[in-house]
């Protein structure tokens, strides 16, 4: 997909962004023939309306796109991206943007609208291309678009071609592109290296479980990203029904998201020391599968009773989080397609997050609003802690009752982060269930742009 802007050129066409209350003024600024055309076309600048403007010889010389009223504008993210597929191929520039934040959103949406997953069928189509709007940080927008494209590609690839081996290779390719270091522990070496729960979850599959550990940067505040890399989740011996298994290729969406975020960070050469940890497994069914009722020892030393083998993501994350916590970073972020309860709470479009740090929560919420990447803080409600304590072991991986599922999962993960000053957990969906502007149906990054936007404030020179 095109994830870069095109150079400015004198013959570029203009896409005019027009709100209803500015329609008359804009129309009166046009040549008389185009004024007549706009009136005859019935263009009233309603949200999503597109009017192609004729040139002197009948060619398309430009276009107008309706922004709609304030209510319509608030209801649609990346609205301008809806025009991209309807415009003739070639370079375009935007006119009528109100401020730099709007311009950045419109520019990012334009680049994301060009995304197509073509690994198995079809090919990239020729679309209208955008000249970077004035005042927009083009490199930053391009880095976000490229990171999102990587995340989408990884999630969209079916599990037969995106197992732990392939996810490791994607991380190695990314490390090679940016000069990062990478180390991988896999198979039975996980046991000797102290990652028993990663091993237990992945041992039933012939595709060896592993922990991917990538690091980049030599100076600055420290940031550790931990992404759930369950490349396919059958549910284990607590087998999922067929209808629930259909989207389980996306259960490595957390890993895909942190790799996309890492790409943006490294592309922009942000002044941080970055570490990325991905426990990559397949939760399969065989004679060696871990069982309901098993009690597993974790890297942290905590024992975990298995009451549902389909609550495996928190197990592999726990070992990775424990490793990260042994050399506490200034900020740790985990991302995982962890619970259906999070989807029930906020739907597919919002990325809920959990943290005890009020300043971090405020920064992420503000960043999500600015960058149009909706996030929402959920409570780490301490009175629910006893739900995690089965008595026979330190922790229960799947408390009974069905209430507060996303909260108890986050509380579970927090038990493995004891020394890191600031820890945030994102329970993402990783999937766009129906097409929307700049967001085709399929794999999707969530929370990544909000994190990227907030990082400079969260990781200042002192890491405080």
Automatic annotation (TrEMBL):
The keyword Cell inner membrane does not apply. The keyword Manganese applies. Pfam families: Peptidase_M17, Peptidase_M17_N_1. CDD domains: Peptidase_M17. One of its GO terms (biological process) is proteolysis. GO terms for cellular component: cytoplasm. Residues 308-315 form the Cytosol aminopeptidase domain. Keywords: Aminopeptidase, Hydrolase, Manganese, Protease. InterPro entries: Leucine_aapep/pepB, Macro_dom-like, Peptidase_M17_C, Peptidase_M17_N_1. One of its GO terms (molecular function) is manganese ion binding. Signal peptide: none annotated. Belongs to the peptidase M17 family. This is Leucyl aminopeptidase family protein. It comes from Meridianimarinicoccus aquatilis.
């Amino acid at each position: 997909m095109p994830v870069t802007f095109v150079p400015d050129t004198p013959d570029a066409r203009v896409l005019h962004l027009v709100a209803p209350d500015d329609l008359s003024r804009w129309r009166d600024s046009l040549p008389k023939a185009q004024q007549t055309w706009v009136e005859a076309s019935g263009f009233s600048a309603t949200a999503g309306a597109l009017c192609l403007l004729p040139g002197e010889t009948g060619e398309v010389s430009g276009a107008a796109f309706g922004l709609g009223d304030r209510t319509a504008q608030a209801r649609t993210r990346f609205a301008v991206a809806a025009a991209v597929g309807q415009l003739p191929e070639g370079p375009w520039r935007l006119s009528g943007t109100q401020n730099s934040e709007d311009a950045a959103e419109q520019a990012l949406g334009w680049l994301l609208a060009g995304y197509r997953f073509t690994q198995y069928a079809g090919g990239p189509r020729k679309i209208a291309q955008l000249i970077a709007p004035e005042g927009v940080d083009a490199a930053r927008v391009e880095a976000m678009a490229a990171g999102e494209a990587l995340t989408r590609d990884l999630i969209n690839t079916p599990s037969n071609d995106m197992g732990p081996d392939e996810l490791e290779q994607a991380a190695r390719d990314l490390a090679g592109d940016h000069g990062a270091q990478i180390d991988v522990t896999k198979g039975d070496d996980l046991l000797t290296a102290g990652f028993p729960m990663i091993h237990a979850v992945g041992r039933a599959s012939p595709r060896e479980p592993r922990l991917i550990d990538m690091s980049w940067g030599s100076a600055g505040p420290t940031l550790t990203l931990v992404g759930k890399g369950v490349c396919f989740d059958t549910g284990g011996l607590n087998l999922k029904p067929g209808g629930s298994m259909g989207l389980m290729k996306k259960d490595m969406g957390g890993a895909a998201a942190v790799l996309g975020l890492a790409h943006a960070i490294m592309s922009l050469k942000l002044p941080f020391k970055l570490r990325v940890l991905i426990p990559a497994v397949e939760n399969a069914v065989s004679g060696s599968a871990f069982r309901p009722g098993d009690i597993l020892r974790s890297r942290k030393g905590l024992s975990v009773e298995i009451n549902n083998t389909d609550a495996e993501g928190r197990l592999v994350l726990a070992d990775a989080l424990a490793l990260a916590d042994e050399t506490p970073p200034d900020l740790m972020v985990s991302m995982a397609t962890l619970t259906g309860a999070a989807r029930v709470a906020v739907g597919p479009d919002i990325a809920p997050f959990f943290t005890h740090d009020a300043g971090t929560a405020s920064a992420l919420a503000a960043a999500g609003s600015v960058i149009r990447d909706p996030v929402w803080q959920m409570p780490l409600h301490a009175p629910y802690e006893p739900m995690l304590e089965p008595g026979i072991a330190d922790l229960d991986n799947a408390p009974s009752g069905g209430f507060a599922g996303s909260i108890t999962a986050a509380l579970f993960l927090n038990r493995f982060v004891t020394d890191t000053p600031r820890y945030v957990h994102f329970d993402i969906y990783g999937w766009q269930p129906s097409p929307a502007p700049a967001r085709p149906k399929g794999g999707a990054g969530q929370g990544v742009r909000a994190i990227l936007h907030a990082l400079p404030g969260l990781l200042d020179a002192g890491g405080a």
